């Protein structure tokens, strides 16, 4: 009987191992002004395209990257100068940035985000009428 | 029209709050800087049954600017983090990433087979494989018996 049930109900997946406490780092960044807008560069060593998330919500740009250095299983750490963890940093975008045209690329552990300038709103004359 | 409003009298306070926030953020930044006041690039060393592994964080280095050498048991790493051509200093609004030419030497223990080193460079991480040398096989030493 119990066998029957086991066959028809989806087998419960083994619970994932409890998440290991990971360090969260603030990556160093450069912000550079170009003619088209602002160029943001962030050092994210060990982060690949699959482990990088870049998101704009309202006027906040958030980058989150998971460092995944390919250390073989069972490697014994003899000497440590950097730690493995996640990169997180967010920025408040000014109104000058054209949100919908933001583009980004990742090269050799450096994320480059282009924040193009929004065209300035032209002053507009408003006609005033009377009844 | 009310000239004085309670709500507005706190505005100065909010400004102060914002200022303090900004100040604290900049303190945070100096801590980041500490990370780089150590030797660059930071390396981790791992041991595996058949090799040692060196991992170095070198984001932003182009593979053609990366130089690895081995001579008399010393592994040399050299590279540079450069800005693209035509980047003028005054257009930076923020500059936190380490820049310039860097160099680091690491002594390699004798137990490494230096003829078979290999390295990979992915996502700004340099990984150097140092295979262990064949362990000296224990030899029997014949003892001659004097009569």
Structure description:
The complex is a heterodimer of chains A (131) and B (147). Chain A is mostly beta strands. Chain A has a domain at 22-68 and 84-120: Immunoglobulin-like (Sandwich), CATH 2.60.40. In chain A, 5% of the residues lie in helices and 44% in strands. Chain A has a four-stranded mixed sheet with strand order 1-7-5-4, with no helix packed on it. By secondary structure, chain B is α+β, with helices and mostly antiparallel strands. Chain B has two domains: 10-38; 40-83 and 98-134, Immunoglobulin-like (Sandwich), CATH 2.60.40.790. Chain B has helices at residues 6-9, 11-37, and strands at residues 43-47, 51-57, 67-71, 74-81, 92-95, 100-107, 118-122, 125-131. In chain B, strand 3 (67-71) and strand 4 form a beta hairpin. The chains are: A mainly beta (131), B alpha+beta (147). Strand 6 of chain A pairs antiparallel with strand 1 of chain B, so a sheet runs across the interface.
For the structure shown, list the relevant keywords.
heterodimer, A: 131 residues, mainly beta, Immunoglobulin-like, four-stranded mixed sheet, four-stranded antiparallel sheet, 1 helix, B: 147 residues, alpha+beta, three-stranded antiparallel sheet, 2 helices
CATH architecture designation of the largest domain in chain B: Sandwich
Major sheet size, sense and barrel closure of chain B:
4 strands, antiparallel
CATH class of the largest domain in chain B, named: Mainly Beta
Radius of gyration of chain A: 24 Å
Care to count the β-strands of chain B? 8
Question: Cα-atom Rg of chain B, whole angstroms?
Answer: 28 Å
Shape of chain B: elongated
What name does the CATH topology of the domain at 22-68 and 84-120 in chain A carry?
A: Immunoglobulin-like
Helix fraction of chain A by DSSP (H/I, runs of at least 4): under 10%
The strands making up the biggest β-sheet of chain A line up spatially as: 1-7-5-4
**Largest inter-chain contact set:** A-B, 34 and 39 residues
**Overall geometry of chain A:** elongated
């Amino acid at each position: 009987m119990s066998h029957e049930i086991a066959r028809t109900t989806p087998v419960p997946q083994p619970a994932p191992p409890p998440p290991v406490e990971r360090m969260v780092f603030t990556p160093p960044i450069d912000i550079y002004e170009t003619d088209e807008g602002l160029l943001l560069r962030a050092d994210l060593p060990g982060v690949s395209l699959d482990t990088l998330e870049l998101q704009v919500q309202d006027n906040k740009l958030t980058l989150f990257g998971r460092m995944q250095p390919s250390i073989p299983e069972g490697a014994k750490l003899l000497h440590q100068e950097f730690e493995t963890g996640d990169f997180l940093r967010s920025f408040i975008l000014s109104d000058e940035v054209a949100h919908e045209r933001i583009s980004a690329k990742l090269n050799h552990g450096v994320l480059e985000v282009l924040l193009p300038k929004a065209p300035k709103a032209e002053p507009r004359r408003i006609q005033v009428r009377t009844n | 029209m009310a000239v004085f409003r309670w709500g507005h009298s706190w505005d100065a306070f909010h400004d102060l709050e914002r200022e303090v926030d900004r100040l604290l953020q900049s303190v945070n930044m100096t801590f980041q800087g500490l990370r780089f006041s150590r030797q660059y690039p930071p390396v981790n060393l791992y041991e595996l049954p058949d090799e040692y592994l060196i991992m170095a964080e070198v984001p932003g280095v182009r593979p053609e600017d990366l130089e690895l050498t081995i001579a008399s048991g010393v592994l040399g790493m050299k590279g540079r983090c450069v800005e693209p051509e035509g980047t003028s200093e005054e257009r930076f609004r923020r500059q936190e990433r380490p820049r310039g030419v860097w160099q680091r030497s690491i002594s390699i223990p004798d137990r490494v087979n230096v003829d078979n080193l290999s390295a990979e460079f992915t996502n700004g991480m340099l990984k150097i494989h140092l295979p262990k040398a064949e362990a000296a096989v224990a030899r029997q030493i014949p003892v001659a018996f004097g009569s």
